[in-house]
Design brief:
The protein has 370 residues and is α+β, with helices and mostly antiparallel strands. The protein contains 8 helices and 20 strands. Strands 3, 4, 5, 9 and 12 form a 5-stranded mixed beta sheet that branches.
């Protein structure tokens, strides 16, 4: 067996903490040459474990140095690792109890080096904690899926987001991109990022839920794409957001990714804002991702036997919770519809079979409500 075959192939690593579906080869999982970026990028549990690990390594290292001189520390048993380890902890923390102390010249040199190390370690950990706590973060609630529906007779891509905090945000900006796999005239493939124009990419005040709108017209990069075509092109939506947080007095940024199977055709977002008798608006963030079948899609059902009563039911609306699992494009789903006739008030049960961008199995329930 050759030497080259014995070399382990590099392991690919996901780009980004959220897992955007992109990978890299040739980069280390833990880049020790950039410790600051590594410490800041760790999760809080990972950061705590890393700091405790560094603290233990430093104490163990100096405890082993103290063992090289059995008589170097006063009031320690010769060769006792436990005594020198606890002495190392006290020295690293600059705490002197007066019981154990260096006696020899070697003990003084090692303890002095540990004092300097302990002071530097405390300063570094304090600085990293301050950076991690003071770093401004956005808490944005996103809809679980993007939807494609009709707006003024034209298909439109919609995404909804809301501020997850009580604080008011100002100067909110959003940009939407789509990554598509395209084929060149020579037969090669390449991935290209297209900028999707938003009808309102800026809000002076970000208080209530914000629905981003991209009209899919002849100039849109998504023109001519349906659910199957987007999946075939391995399309991904990238939404970037930045705003000024009035409480933090800083600009916060975040990004959300949507894969092709999370783009629902023929649906729109259900109402997430209600008004009381005094006209006060209340936003329900639990309904940010709730989707409903559009009126145009309901009208399409009239050509299916047994579903003509839907057209006469003007108040009927199909609400699909966001927890339904995704299925492959082109499957059929069966929905049981309880329809109340607008004229007679009688209740009838109809079954509709329809191919749609959002798919579910026959066992999954879809509820109709007025």
């Amino acid at each position: 067996m050759s030497i080259i075959s014995k070399i382990r192939p590099p392991k690919r690593l996901a780009i980004g903490r959220e897992g955007s579906g992109h990978w890299k080869l040739g980069i280390p999982r833990l880049d020790l040459s950039d410790p600051y970026h590594l410490a800041i990028g760790l999760s809080w549990p990972g950061f705590v474990v890393a700091m405790i690990g560094c603290w233990l390594v430093i104490n163990l290292f100096f405890a082993l140095l103290y063992l090289l001189d059995p008589a170097g520390i006063v009031n320690t048993k010769p060769g006792s690792f436990g005594d020198v380890f606890y002495f190392s902890i006290e020295t690293l923390a600059t705490v002197g109890y007066g019981v154990m102390a260096p006696r020899s010249q070697y003990g003084h040199i090692v303890s002095s080096a540990e004092l300097v190390t302990g002071t530097a370690f405390t300063a570094i950990v304090t600085g990293l904690l301050f950076v991690r706590f003071s770093r401004p973060r956005a808490k944005i609630t996103y809809a679980g899926d993007a939807v494609v529906t009709l707006r003024n007779g034209k298909p439109a891509l919609m995404l909804r987001l809301a501020n997850g905090r009580r604080a008011v945000m100002s100067s909110a900006n959003a940009r939407l991109f789509v990554l598509l796999a395209e084929k060149t005239a020579e037969g090669g493939y390449f991935r290209r990022i297209h900028d999707l124009h938003l009808a309102q990419p800026h809000l002076p005040l970000f208080v209530m839920p914000w629905t981003l709108l991209h009209i899919i017209d002849d100039k849109s990069p998504l023109h001519g794409y349906d659910s199957a075509a987007l999946i075939a092109a391995d399309a991904k939506l990238f939404l970037t957001f930045d705003a000024h947080d009035q409480t933090l007095a800083a600009t916060v940024q975040c990004m959300q990714t949507y894969t092709a199977d999370r783009i629902r055709f023929g649906m729109h977002y259900a109402d997430a804002v209600t008004f009381d008798d005094k006209g006060h608006a209340t936003a329900d963030l639990g309904r940010i991702g709730v989707r409903s079948l559009t009126a145009a899609t309901r009208a399409d059902y009239t050509s299916i036997p047994g579903a003509r009563a839907i057209a006469a039911t003007r108040s009927a609306r199909l609400t699909i919770p966001t927890s339904l699992p995704s299925r492959s494009t082109g499957r059929r789903f069966t929905a049981c519809l309880i329809i109340r006739s607008a004229s007679s008030g009688k209740v009838a049960l109809s079954t509709v079979v329809k191919t749609c961008g959002t798919m579910m199995s026959a066992a999954e329930r879809v509820s109709w409500r007025r």
